[in-house]
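Translate sequence into structure tokens.
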Amino acid sequence: MAKNILIIYSSIDGHTISICKHISKSLEESHFPKLMNLENIKKSDIEGAEKILIGASIRYGDHSKELYNFIEIHKELIEHKENAFFSVNAVARKPEKNKPETNPYINKFLKRTGWKPNKIAVFAGRIDYPKYNFFDKHMIRLIMWITNGPTDLNKTYEFTNWNDVDEFAKKIL
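Result follows.
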């Protein structure tokens, strides 16, 4: 039976939105997905959904303050629905950190919020040097250099395994 699925995103550079759109498109055949920015969500949006999916990106080692505030305010309501969470971060490009149980940002988020999503995933993100401002470009490059990642400021590097995204979307059904 078709369900109303609220897909909420918290994105800095747009890649998390791309992943959420991809998931939304795959759910359209059998459900009614609604894609919304975390900043625009009202309690009534959550109440009207049968399933909740939240996707959030990392910048400088943490999810956004807005995401933490959102979970704190709405955690009880979300927990009364089928729910799922995924994090998008560059550290997940490493095989030893691309699972929820081995990804430091997922563990930090779950510990800090106390939320226990029904389904959890982590996806490697994208490094888009040409898009970044001067500060971000050089800070992210430094982080990539320290972690043996790509450092060419003229290139964009996408690490997302879209097959993993598709598999996660199937689990939401």
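Note: The helical segments are 15-27, 43-47, 65-79, 104-113, 134-146, 162-172.
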